[in-house]
Amino acid sequence: MRTFKFTFWQDGEFFVGFLNEYPDYQTQGMHKEELAENLKDLLNDLESGHVPYIHKVEELMVA
Any bridge partners for residue 9, and if so which? Predict the structure, then answer.
Protein backbone atom coordinates (compact mmCIF):
# COMPACT_ATOMS: atom_id res chain seq x y z
CA MET A 1 0.00 0.00 0.00
CA ARG A 2 1.25 3.47 -0.90
CA THR A 3 0.21 6.83 0.43
CA PHE A 4 -0.04 10.06 -1.52
CA LYS A 5 -0.54 13.57 -0.21
CA PHE A 6 -3.21 15.65 -1.89
CA THR A 7 -4.39 19.22 -1.75
CA PHE A 8 -8.09 20.08 -1.85
CA TRP A 9 -10.53 22.93 -1.37
CA GLN A 10 -14.25 23.45 -1.55
CA ASP A 11 -15.55 25.44 -4.51
CA GLY A 12 -19.29 25.91 -4.16
CA GLU A 13 -20.85 22.44 -4.00
CA PHE A 14 -17.71 20.63 -5.14
CA PHE A 15 -14.51 19.47 -3.50
CA VAL A 16 -11.64 20.08 -5.94
CA GLY A 17 -8.17 18.65 -5.53
CA PHE A 18 -4.95 17.29 -6.97
CA LEU A 19 -2.24 14.83 -5.99
CA ASN A 20 0.75 16.82 -4.73
CA GLU A 21 3.11 14.85 -6.99
CA TYR A 22 0.96 15.76 -10.02
CA PRO A 23 -0.29 19.32 -9.39
CA ASP A 24 -1.27 19.95 -13.02
CA TYR A 25 -4.03 17.33 -12.93
CA GLN A 26 -7.15 18.23 -10.94
CA THR A 27 -10.36 16.36 -10.27
CA GLN A 28 -13.48 16.96 -8.21
CA GLY A 29 -16.26 15.31 -6.26
CA MET A 30 -19.49 16.21 -4.53
CA HIS A 31 -18.02 14.97 -1.22
CA LYS A 32 -14.48 14.60 0.06
CA GLU A 33 -14.83 10.80 -0.15
CA GLU A 34 -15.82 11.03 -3.82
CA LEU A 35 -12.88 13.34 -4.45
CA ALA A 36 -10.54 10.74 -2.88
CA GLU A 37 -11.95 8.01 -5.16
CA ASN A 38 -11.55 10.26 -8.20
CA LEU A 39 -7.96 10.99 -7.18
CA LYS A 40 -7.27 7.24 -7.04
CA ASP A 41 -8.71 6.86 -10.55
CA LEU A 42 -6.62 9.79 -11.73
CA LEU A 43 -3.48 8.21 -10.26
CA ASN A 44 -4.21 4.97 -12.11
CA ASP A 45 -4.61 6.91 -15.36
CA LEU A 46 -1.39 8.85 -14.82
CA GLU A 47 0.65 5.76 -13.94
CA SER A 48 -0.81 3.65 -16.77
CA GLY A 49 1.43 5.22 -19.38
CA HIS A 50 -1.55 6.29 -21.50
CA VAL A 51 -1.34 9.98 -20.55
CA PRO A 52 1.40 11.73 -22.54
CA TYR A 53 3.76 14.42 -21.24
CA ILE A 54 3.00 14.02 -17.55
CA HIS A 55 4.45 16.74 -15.33
CA LYS A 56 5.59 15.49 -11.94
CA VAL A 57 7.01 17.22 -8.86
CA GLU A 58 9.98 15.69 -7.05
CA GLU A 59 12.55 16.91 -4.53
CA LEU A 60 16.17 17.71 -5.29
CA MET A 61 18.74 17.59 -2.49
CA VAL A 62 21.60 20.08 -2.87
CA ALA A 63 24.57 20.24 -0.53
Answer: 16
